[in-house]
Amino acid sequence: MIDLYYAEDDETIAQLVKEYLEQAECQVTVFHMIEDMKQALRKRQPDIILLDWNMPDGQGNDLCRWLRLRWLQLPVIFLTVRGDSCDIVDGFQNGADDYVVKPFELEVLHSRILALLRRAGQRKDACFYCDSLILDTEKKAVFRDNAEIALSQPEYQILLLLMENKGKTVTRRQLLEQVWDSNGSYVNDNTLTVTIKRLREKLRHPACLKTIRSFGYRMEDSL
């Protein structure tokens, strides 16, 4: 099922789109304010985002710019009422992947969503972001406030798993199995506790690395 966030201030249009896409195996969450979508994105990221151009508390291009500072590869489709070339250019400059002009056929919108997700599936994120932290998978490097931080291999692997699952809780068992057991190294639970403690210290105790008591850990933007 496709997890989709939809920013739209027209309740009638939002309901029509939501009903159609949910019949097409999408899970649609509608937001009537930009700030509400930002709050939801800080907790969980969907598979794709639909952005109406004009919102009561701002414009979609401003939200798209905010998104791109945090999630470089999150697919975004703009919905613009006029098809104005200036709107479209501005949208692409701020990070939109595609656009659909209102009024649109629901079947066309759905096909554009599927096409964009196929293209996105062929891309692999080189960098992951959370607040001021950056993890570059090509360089195998981690930065905070543009300063590189040296991590041990287990520390790096833990951070990578958390970054890859940003907005989701990764359990302690998952970390133990994927960081150590996958390499044939079997360690006890205390090793993970100590490694997480050292990782926090090296990263200067970032607010975005959260402990979920009795479960595990989660990366989540706090800004």
UniProtKB/TrEMBL annotation:
One annotated Gene Ontology cellular component of this protein: protein-DNA complex
Example of a GO MF term: phosphorelay response regulator activity
Residues annotated as domain Response regulatory: 3-117
Alphabetical list of InterPro entries matching this protein: CheY-like_superfamily, FHA_dom, OmpR/PhoB-type_DNA-bd, Sig_transdc_resp-reg_receiver, WalR-like, WH-like_DNA-bd_sf
Residues found modified as 4-aspartylphosphate: 52
Any single biological process term in GO: regulation of DNA-templated transcription
DNA-binding region: 125-221
Domain FHA residue range list: 118-192
Gene3D superfamilies: 3.40.50.2300, 6.10.250.690, Winged helix-like DNA-binding domain superfamily/Winged helix DNA-binding domain
Alphabetical UniProt keywords: DNA-binding, Phosphoprotein, Transcription, Transcription regulation
SUPFAM superfamilies noted in UniProt: CheY-like
Signal peptide: none
Function: May play the central regulatory role in sporulation. It may be an element of the effector pathway responsible for the activation of sporulation genes in response to nutritional stress. Spo0A may act in concert with spo0H (a sigma factor) to control the expression of some genes that are critical to the sporulation process.
Name assigned to this protein: Stage 0 sporulation protein A homolog
Species: Clostridium scindens (strain JCM 10418 / VPI 12708)
